[in-house]
Automatic annotation (TrEMBL):
Name this polypeptide is given: Uridylate kinase
Function field: Catalyzes the phosphorylation of pyrimidine nucleoside monophosphates at the expense of ATP. Plays an important role in de novo pyrimidine nucleotide biosynthesis. Has preference for UMP and dUMP as phosphate acceptors, but can also use CMP, dCMP and AMP.
Entry's cofactor comment: Binds 1 Mg(2+) ion per monomer.
GO biological process: 'de novo' pyrimidine nucleobase biosynthetic process; pyrimidine nucleotide biosynthetic process
EC number: 2.7.4.14
Cofactors named for this entry: Mg(2+)
Residues binding ATP: G21, A22, G23, K24, G25, T26, R157, Q202
Domain remark text: Consists of three domains, a large central CORE domain and two small peripheral domains, NMPbind and LID, which undergo movements during catalysis. The LID domain closes over the site of phosphoryl transfer upon ATP binding. Assembling and dissambling the active center during each catalytic cycle provides an effective means to prevent ATP hydrolysis.
SUBUNIT field: Monomer.
Amino acid sequence: MAAPTFESEKVLVIFVLGGPGAGKGTQCERLVSQYGFVHLSAGDLLRAEQNRQGSQYGQLIADHIKEGKIVPQEITIALLRNAMDQAVASGGKTLAGHDVGPEHKDKWTGGKGRFLIDGFPRKMDQAVGFDETVCNSRFVLFLHCSEEVMLGRLLERGKTSGRADDNEESIKKRFRTFVETSMPVVDYYRKQDRVVEVDSQQDVAKVTEDIRKAMDQTFAKLGQAA
Ligand code: ADP
Ligand code: C5P
Ligand code: MG
C-alpha cells in the first residue's frame, strides 16, 4: 500500500468532533490564531464541492447532506487531502483566504503544518481511510452537548445560515446519524485514550477557555510545543 501523504512527525492533526450544533466551527475559529492552526471543516469543504461548477459529486453531496447521511469517504478524504496539501505548500494559507500569520510561520516551514479538522471522521471507514492514506491524527477534541441544546442552536442558526439541513426534519436525521454512526468513532478513540472532552453547553468564551486548558495539558503530555 502507498505511504500516507503526510509524515505524522511534520503534520499535526487534531480532529474536532461533537454533535451537529455542538459548536465545532465556532470554537475552531477562536483557536486558530493562538495556536497557528489551519481550520478545515469537512462539511464546509463538501458544501464548496457541491457548489463547484462542473463537480461530478454536486447532486450526491446535496442529497446526503439533506438526509443527514455520511458522504462516501473517498470524496471527503480527497477534499481534505487537497486542502491540506495546499496549506502546507503555501506555508499556512487556505483557499478560503486565511493565513496563519507571521508569528506562526516557523510551524509551517519545510513541509510542516498543523490542522484542526472539524466534523471528521464521522464514520469508522473515514477514520481508518484517513490514517492509512493521509496521516495519523494526534488526538480528538470532543465537544459534548445535549440534543435539546443543539436543536435550539441549529434552529436559530437556520434562520440565517441558508443551509438545506438546518431544519427540524434534517436535524433529527443528523442526530440519528451522529448517535448510530459517529459516536462509535469517538468510542474507538476513547478506547485508545486519545479523546479530550469538553462541555460545550457553556457560553462560548468559557468553552474556549476549557478547550485551551485541556489542549495545553494534552500538548504537555505529548511533549509537543503548543
Ligand atoms: P457545529 O459546527 O458544531 O455544527 P456551530 O459552531 O456552527 O456548530 O454552532 C452552531 C450554532 O450555535 C451557531 O449559530 C453558533 O453561533 C451557536 N453556538 C456555538 N457555540 C455556542 C455556545 N457555546 N453557546 C451558544 N451558542 C453557540
Ligand atoms: O459538519 P457539518 O454539520 O457541516 O456537516 C454537514 C453534513 O455534511 C453532514 O450532516 C453530512 O451529511 C456531511 N458530512 C459527511 N462527512 C463528514 C462531514 C460532513 O458526510 N465527515
Ligand atoms: Mg460546523
